[in-house]
Amino acid sequence: MIVKGDTNVKNFKSQFNFYHKNMGDFPMKTKQIAQFKIIVRSYLVIALLTIVAACTCYQLAPITQRFLVFRKAFFDSFAHAPWFFEGFWFFMSLHAIAMLGVLLCFFNTRREKHPFWQWHLSVGMIGYTFMCLTYVSRLYFVPKMTLAYLQGGPTVRSIIETYGIAEFDFFNIAFGFPAIWFIVFGLCAAKNYRLLAVSSWLIGIGYVFSIYGYLTRVSIVLGVSSAAAIVFFIIWVCASFKFFEEEKI
After folding, report:
1. Domain encompassing residue 199
2. How many domains does the chain have?
3. For residue 32, how far is the Cα from the chain centroid?
4. Tens digits of per-residue pLDDT, 57-72?
């Protein structure tokens, strides 16, 4: 029987008010926190390994393939050595999927699911979904298009050279939206997590330069961006590990 003024009741109310004010709900149990951190680390490690593998494959791919310019030189090169460029597309699609998980984990650390954070999450999720779809479509269509070009007549070749492959957004959303996510995230983290903020800004700017290099066909921009992505992402993942260790979940 609970009596008004009972010490246990007062303690319960005190704890409830504290958690409601600071967390928005009761905190995760110790076991749940441990499981959550394992999931976060797994997503971060997969995202890191896949971006390193993707950028390595891109650097090893023949330069005639990098811009996806549908001419005879591209199709001849791709027919003889498709592995590195296909590896780049494959690992980038996996990277995008892993980043979807990372974004959800960061969102779940928010004590209040404010509309701003929901917008922020949506921007990142849309961007990485487009990125995954773009690279998966290339894995499927480009080998078929290569075969059709090399075996087809002048009319078929002319159509392929003119229209190429259907792009979802020419990377404006696939790279642009993740760039927005990282830059905004960096602004929010700047006060308490300087390294995480700076590395987020660098990755966001790197995405912007990748769009510029792809649209303008400037090889050196894409080469430098892919190399820098590895360095910046390693720093960002290390800073993210520290964030999830220190953040009260």
Report:
1. 30-246
2. 1
3. 25
4. 988 988 888 878 888 9
249 sits in which H/E element: none
Dist. CA 224–CA 212, nearest whole Å: 12
The DSSP annotation for 137-189 comes to HHHHHHHHHHHHHHHS-HHHHHHHHHH-S--SSTTTTTTHHHHHHHHHHHHHH
Q: For the chain, first and last CA: distance in Å?
A: 34
Asked whether residue 192 is assigned to any structural domain, the reply reads: yes
Residue 5 included in any domain: no
Alpha-carbon distances of 44 from 102, 110, 132, 165, rounded to whole Å: 6, 18, 17, 32
What's the Cα-to-Cα distance from 104 to each of 40, 113, 141, 151, 152, rounded to whole Å? Answer: 9, 12, 30, 45, 46
Nearest to 147 by CA among 134, 157, 133: 157
Report the mean per-residue pLDDT for the chain.
Answer: 84
User: What residues contact residue 194 under an 8 Å CB cut-off, 6+ apart?
Assistant: none
Q: Looking at the domain assignment, is residue 15 inside a domain? A: no
- Span 54-107, pLDDT tens digits: 999 988 988 888 878 888 999 999 999 999 999 999 999 999 999 999 999 999
Cβ neighbour number for residue 168 with a 10 Å cutoff: 14
Distance CA 106, CA 126 (A): 16
